[in-house]
Amino acid sequence: MTTRLSELSEFASKTGYRARLPDDRGHIAYSDTEHATWQALMQRQLGMIEGRVCQQYLDGLERLALPESRIPQLGEVDRVLQAATGWQTAQVPALIPFDTFFDLLANRHFPVATFIRTPEEMDYLKEPDIFHEIFGHCPMLTDPSFAEFTATYGRLGKAATPKERVYLARLYWMTVEFGLVDTPAGRRIYGGGIISSPRETLHSLSDVPVHRPFDPVDALRTPYRIDILQPLYYVLDDLTTLHDLSRQDIMGMVHHAMALGLFEPRFEPAPSSARASA
Questions:
Q1: Which terminus of the chain faces fewer neighbouring Cβ atoms within 10 Å, N or C?
Q2: DSSP string spanning 176-193?
Q3: Catalytic residue among 127, 132, 133, 148
Q4: Per annotation, catalytic residue among 145, 196, 197, 246
Q5: Distance between CA atoms of residues 144 and 146, nearest Å
Q6: Which of the following is catalytic: 127, 177, 197, 200?
Q7: Residues in domain Biopterin-dependent aromatic amino acid hydroxylase family profile (predicted)?
């Protein structure tokens, strides 16, 4: 999240993607190629997540009833989210400032970049596109625990200092983007960054990365890189842990993490051409 938001000026000039704008009726027109890309991504990832994602995500996906053959309109998604948890989407460019991001979340608006990757970038995309945001994240926003935690996170971020926000970014990365949860059926995925990535989906549940019980202070202290498969995942014992966390003194935990300092990274430094880690 930090790299996605804090380096807006650097990447706005490098990306060839531009958000699609709605017409006067709020409808966004996509090309046949863009719809075909959505369909290919949907078909690939629906098969990939079977038996690997948590039930709350599956329930949300069923409620959203996302079309497979075309990119959904944001209004279709909004109707479901609003009825479930009071959330809705907000159309944004690929990269937005911290202030905008936190303000949107605090008001239960989830930012969605209204473009889709090209067929040449099906497997990895630096910018968050509409498939990542809608397929990866929106089903979980129908879950009350997840939705409440995300809104609380936004409210805290609005009031945080720049340094505090960098620490908060790590908490978001280790939960909303790359979180795992233990369930009666086994270990499952709930983080949108995993769910929208075929390689990360397989990697996250394999024996290759480290899996640690979720501890919010530890998560706040854990560096990450966006351009590699994650070497470490934090595992919730239940999704209600996020709801409980939203009622605790998260900023107190941030200050404790700041006093303790960061853990040693579990990865090599990023090359100069890649975005910085957080």
A1: C
A2: IIT-EEEETTEEEE--HH
A3: 132
A4: 196
A5: 6
A6: 177
A7: 1-278
Q: Is 277 a catalytic residue?
A: no
**% helix, strand, coil for the chain, step of 5:** 50, 10, 40
Binned at pLDDT 50, 70 and 90, residue 272 comes out as: low
Does the CA dihedral 85-113-47-171 come out positive or negative? negative
- pTM here is 0.91
84-132: per-residue pLDDT in tens? 999 999 999 877 889 999 999 999 999 999 999 998 888 777 788 999 9
Query: pLDDT tens digits, residue range 130-182?
Result: 999 999 999 999 999 999 999 999 999 999 999 999 999 999 999 999 999 99
Percent of the residues in the chain that have a pLDDT greater than 90, as a whole number: 81
Residue 193 CA to residue 226 CA, distance in Å, equals 10
Identify whether 197 is a catalytic site residue. no
From CA 34, how far away is CA 126, in angstroms rounded? 18
Say whether 132 is catalytic: yes
AA identity, residue 178: F
Query: Which is the catalytic residue, given 6, 109, 137, 145?
Result: 137
Q: What is the mean pLDDT of the chain?
A: 91
Distance, CA of 201 to CA of 8 (rounded, Å): 27
Distance of CA 180 to the CA centre of its chain: 13
**3-class secondary structure, 210:** strand
Identify the CA nearest to 55 among candidates 178, 203, 179, 185. Answer: 185
The span from the CA of 256 to the CA of 55, in Å, is: 33
Reduce the DSSP state of residue 269 to 3 states and report it. Answer: coil
DSSP string for residues in 78-130: HHHHHHHHS-EEEEE-S---HHHHHHHHHTTEEEEE-----GGGSS--SS--H
